[in-house]
Amino acid sequence: MGAAPYSLRSMAAGAAVPVVGAAVALAVSARLFRPYGALISSLWQGSAARWPPSPARAVVLTGCDRGLGFSLATHCHSLGLTVFAGVLDAASPGARRLVDLGVRVVPLDVTDGRSVQGAVQVVQQALKDDARLSLSALVNNAGVLVFGEFGWQTPRQVSLQLDVNLAGTMRVTRAFLPLLRAGTSAGPGPGRGRVVVVTSHCALAALPALSVYAATKAGLQAWADALRMEQAQYGVPVVQVVPGSFTHLSGILAAHAEHAREMEAAMTEEDRQFYGDYPRRFHEYLAVVSSLGREASERPCRLPDDKLHEMFEAALLSLRPAARYVHEPWRYTLYHSLMRLAPTGVRDWLAIRFASLPSFKEKRP
């Protein structure tokens, strides 16, 4: 599935030489620098010293109805942190499960200013009620993904991704900054709360059919880079986390069938004549992942990835956190390394092969 268009297929053979050469260079480099791995890791990943987890340290997370947000909420709760889990739907299976576990669930629609202010007031009141409690971190995790070419997506779908992923994160962060600046006295020394921003591998290298989603995540990355410099003078760390590949467990594609129907309904007659059966083949290809997404939404669970949770622990608790934590399987590491080294044509070929999606087949007269 997902053969490259003819213009890229024709260059596949020529692309092999620089790709193989880059892979060999990476392997040699890894071998040369292996003795210094611990030092490089400590410099890259930030300080190993951490705040001890404590109920006096509060964490606010967005997008906890399912997937990564749900998993992080349960994990932080198990560490002994006080968790405020923001959920879009307080009656969702994930929200009800969190309540059963003893997590504080807070209705939070990141696209609604009044909802955001309501969540701030809930946390603010909790801080007033318990003088020992302070806001240690805000984790911006809420996100929406619509899978489909930009030319298919409706204005509503584009706006939804921009408003949730990018503007929503900004909206929530702006509202919680005063509480984060207020600081914390929990742990071995004073400090202020931090902002954690969940971005995506799509921010590092965009993929076809995820152009809008990638744009929102790349925007988040640029915004977080600038915000880190702005907030450093106030003692508020800003940390980016790029989680690994767990789309089938995240529930983020749970609504794909509905999005596909919306795209189909919005297509003009000219669109249908031009694309032919391509959109149908594309959406059918994603049906299995969409089904897994619905199942993950209906029965959210802790993600089976200890290294992912350990990385978030570092982002939340390190005294001197790294600017960015990246969690990825080895194939992602190799892929992104090649993408940084390869020329544009090769990068496009790699991205299309990596995504491995159905492709357009032009009808011949």
Description:
The protein is of the alpha/beta class. Helix content is 56%, strand content 10%. Helix 16 packs antiparallel against helix 17 (344-355). The radius of gyration is 22 Å and the shape is globular. It comes from Frankliniella fusca. Belongs to the short-chain dehydrogenases/reductases (SDR) family.
Q: What helical percentage do the residues reach?
A: 55-70%
Strand portion:
5-15%
How many DSSP helices?
17
Round the Cα radius of gyration to an integer and report it. Answer: 22 Å
Query: SSE order in H/E notation?
Result: HHHEHEHEHEHEHHEHHHHHHEHH
End-to-end separation: 24 Å
Structural class: alpha/beta
Unreliable stretches: 1-45, 185-190
Instruction: Categorize the overall geometry.
Output: globular
Q: What is the topology, as strand order, of the major beta sheet?
A: 3-2-1-4-5-6-7
Layout of secondary structure:
Blueprint: H1 6-9, H2 12-33, H3 37-45, E1 57-61, H4 67-79, E2 82-87, H5 93-101, E3 104-107, H6 113-129, E4 134-140, H7 155-181, E5 194-198, H8 201-204, H9 211-232, E6 238-242, H10 247-250, H11 256-266, H12 269-275, H13 278-285, H14 287-298, H15 306-317, E7 324-326, H16 330-341, H17 344-355
Parallel strand pairs: 1-2, 1-4, 2-3, 4-5, 5-6, 6-7
